[in-house]
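My current task is to audit a protein record that another person submitted. Please read both lines and tell me whether the tokens look consistent with the sequence. Do not assume that whoever made the record got everything right. I have pasted the whole thing underneath without changing anything:

===
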Amino acid sequence: MAQADGEQLPFRDRAFDVVLLIQVLSGVRRWRRLLDEAFRVLGAGGTLVVGHAVMPQAGIDAQLKSQLAIVLQEMGAGLHEPRKNREEALSWLESVTRTRVNVIAASWTVNRTPRDFMARHRTGARFAALPTPIQEEALQRLSAWSEARFGSLDASFPESHAFELNIFESH
């Protein structure tokens, strides 16, 4: 097992038949550098698999993420747009590979609450990197918005989630 910067992998050229990027593309700002490096270590005719969780676009998590982005933008502490990064990267991959197959590997239903969302995002890498006073104020604003919007931080909403694999075959 190796732990390394995705833009500088400690492997020889064409070392692998398959490269897995699971829950990665939405978290990187320089996705092109990461993908160039993935292709460097991928053998000719190899397979690149990109996996990510899919949640309903109008679900409670999506609404809270959107509102949190607005709050952080108003505070001058906006985060990058993970969905945009992933979609740009997938589009580029489709243009430079031979085939693309999308597979829903799993699906499930979960109950989500605003309070649970805030607890999960408090420790998320991008949010946790913000200064503590910004985190606290953003969560206070999001709590107030959530109570007004949903009636309670503990209001529960069922959401269908899935895990999608985008499988690309290189030339």
The CA atoms of residues 26 and 82 lie 4 Å apart. The first helix runs from residue 31 to 41. The longest strand covers residues 99-112.
